[in-house]
Every structure is written in structure tokens, then in C-alpha cells.
Amino acid sequence: MNNLFDISGKVAVVTGAGGVLAGTVAKYLAEQGCHVAALDLRESAVTGLGSGITGFGCNVLDEENLADVCSAVLEKFGRVDMLFNGAGGNMPGATIGPDQTLYDIKLEDYSKVLDLNLKGTLLPTLVFSKPMTRQVSGGAIVNFSSMAATQPLTRVMGYGNAKAGIDNLTRFLAVELAVKFGAKIRVNAIAPGFFVTNQNRALLTTPDGGYTERGNDVIRKTPLRRFGVPEEILGCIHYLVSDAAKFVTGTIIPVDGGFSAFSGV
Ligand SMILES: NC(=O)c1ccc[n+]([C@@H]2O[C@H](COP(=O)([O-])OP(=O)(O)OC[C@H]3O[C@@H](n4cnc5c(N)ncnc54)[C@H](O)[C@@H]3O)[C@@H](O)[C@H]2O)c1
Q1: For ligand 1, what atom is nearest to the CA of residue 61?
Q2: C-beta of residue 10 within 8 angstroms of C-beta of residue 80
Q3: Do both 117 and 94 map to the same domain?
Q4: What is the pLDDT along the chain (265 residues), one digit of tens a residue?
Q5: Residue 124 lies in a domain
Q6: Which atom of ligand 1 is closest in space to residue 21's alpha carbon?
Q7: 192 lines ligand 1 (CB under 6 A)
Q8: Which of 21, 151, 252 to mutate to test the pocket of ligand 1 (most atoms within 8 A of CB)?
Q9: pTM of the full predicted structure?
Q10: 228 lines ligand 1 (CB under 6 A)
Q11: In which domain, by residue range, is 204 found?
Q12: How many distinct structural domains can be found in the chain?
């Protein structure tokens, strides 16, 4: 039997690759022998990431920009086998601070967060799934959900709403693409638990390496009693895009130290 996990030679597009989680994914895929196109709004964050990785400055909310990058990827590699929708994030105005109420939400920021996470997943999918539909071998798409998608987290309104949309979009796309283009395109999502990254470092940890009150709340609800380290999403990511998951589509897999399984009591 072939090695179910062999992904060498595949062409992978990773959005938000200048960030912590998607950047870790981009480097890992290159180590596995993939040709990686690393996209980020901040071009400097995806230049010089390492051998096997080509950086592109790209805004996931700009269709023209995405189409140009897709053309460049096709010109260089001739195909797109995998898409990782890693660009995403939150903004203070889309959250409700401890001293605020629902009525303090800044709708402009709320819309920006919905756009970045939800539309910023849909638009790259529209662009990069097209070549997959033309390839005999199809392709695999992985979206980035969150714990905030299914159990609303206090404060985190806009982001949680957007990630809930990503769960729905993941299932919708899995069905839609399979029904119209056959079983060759699979769409799944990973739902990371709490990983200390640029977005949440100040919220979860103190400068001396301890936990904030919120950090402690998260740890209490995480049966494995710690935050994740970025490399711990790689096994799930690798599985989802490999032949090992050939019959797997429309799933959202938590990698969360048990956070989603635990009521907290
Ligand atoms: N860190 C966590 O604990 C955690 C948990 C659950 C889900 N996630 C999700 O995982 C994904 C990656 O998270 P991370 O913690 O590595 O984030 P990060 O902030 O480290 O990286 C996000 C990257 O996206 C880029 N970006 C922002 N706007 C963009 C745009 N319009 N176009 C292109 N790129 C853009 C940023 O420049 C940044 O490099 C996000 O979708 C995030 O919501 C993270």
C-alpha cells in the first residue's frame, strides 16, 4: 500500500502565512516536500521563510490581488493541490471589554472582523479551488475555525460570529464542491484551542510568563491543563490534506487539549 501520508511534490497555498499558526504550517509543508506559496498582507513576513516557500504579498479580501497571485502560482507550479485559509483575526472594537456592555460594540470593527475571517476564507477558496476543479486529482482545503465558533466566549462577539460562519461555510463548501465537481475536492476545518500567538498573548499571559485571569480561566477548562504549541496542529493538518483522509470532508476537528469536550465542571 502507498504511504497514506505522502504529500511530497504537492502545491500548497497558505494564507496568513506571516502569522504564527499558518507560518508553522507553511514551513512544515515545505519540510514534507511540498511547494508552498505563502501569502500574507505583510509581504515582509513571508519573504525568506525558507527553501521550498515562495512568499507573496496578498490581501485575502482583494479578489484581483488573489487572482494575480493564483496566476503566478499556476505559472510557477502548474497546479494547486491544497489551500489553507489561515488569515484571520480579531479587533478590540468587535469585542466587549470587561467594563463594557453589548451596546458598546463598534459595528464598523464588527463588520471588519466578519469580513476578514469569513469573506477572507471564501474569496481565496473561490480563486484557488478553480484550478482544483480542473485537475483530475482535485484538491484539499483546510479552514481555520476556533473554540469561539460553537461555544461563545465572553467578550469575543464578532470573531465568534465569524468563526461560526466558517464552520457553516466549511460544511456548505464540502457539499457544494463534491456535488458539482465530484469527490475530488475535500473541504475541512481545524478548530484550534488556545495557542499563545500574537493575537492573544497579552490576553492570556503576563510579561513574567504567568497567566492572566482569563488565561487561568482557559487552563481550568482545558483538561490537558496547558496552552497548545503551534506544532501541535500539524498532525491534524497533515492528516486532512493527505490520502489518509480521502473519505473525510465537511468536518471540523478540534485540536484543543479537550477544551470543547469539557463543560468546565
Ligand atoms: N492563536 C490561536 O490560539 C487560534 C485559535 C483558534 C483559531 N485561530 C485562527 O487561526 C488562524 C491563524 O491564527 P494565528 O494565531 O496564527 O494568527 P496571527 O495573527 O499570528 O496571523 C494572522 C496573519 O494573517 C495576516 N492577515 C491579516 N489580515 C490579512 C489580509 N487581509 N490578507 C492576508 N493576510 C492577512 C496577518 O498579517 C498575520 O500574519 C486565524 O484564522 C485565527 O483566527 C487561532
Answers
A1: 31
A2: no
A3: yes
A4: 579 999 999 999 999 999 999 999 999 999 999 999 999 999 999 999 999 999 999 999 999 999 999 999 999 999 999 999 999 999 999 999 999 999 999 999 999 999 999 999 999 999 999 999 999 999 999 999 999 999 999 999 999 999 999 999 999 999 999 999 988 999 999 999 999 988 788 889 999 989 999 999 999 999 999 999 999 999 999 999 999 999 999 999 999 999 999 999 9
A5: yes
A6: 16
A7: yes
A8: 21
A9: 0.98
A10: no
A11: 199-227
A12: 2
Based on the fold, state whether residues 171 and 43 are members of the same structural domain.
yes
Residue 42: CB within 6 Å of ligand 1? yes
Assess whether 130 and 116 both reside in one domain.
Answer: yes
Indicate which residue of 28, 103, 159, 211 is catalytic: 159
Q: What is the CATH number of the domain that holds 153?
A: 3.40.50.720
> Which of 199, 218, 252, 260 has most ligand 1 atoms within 8 Å of CB, for mutation?
199
Ligand 1 pocket member 246 (CB < 6 A) = no
Catalytic status, residue 159: yes
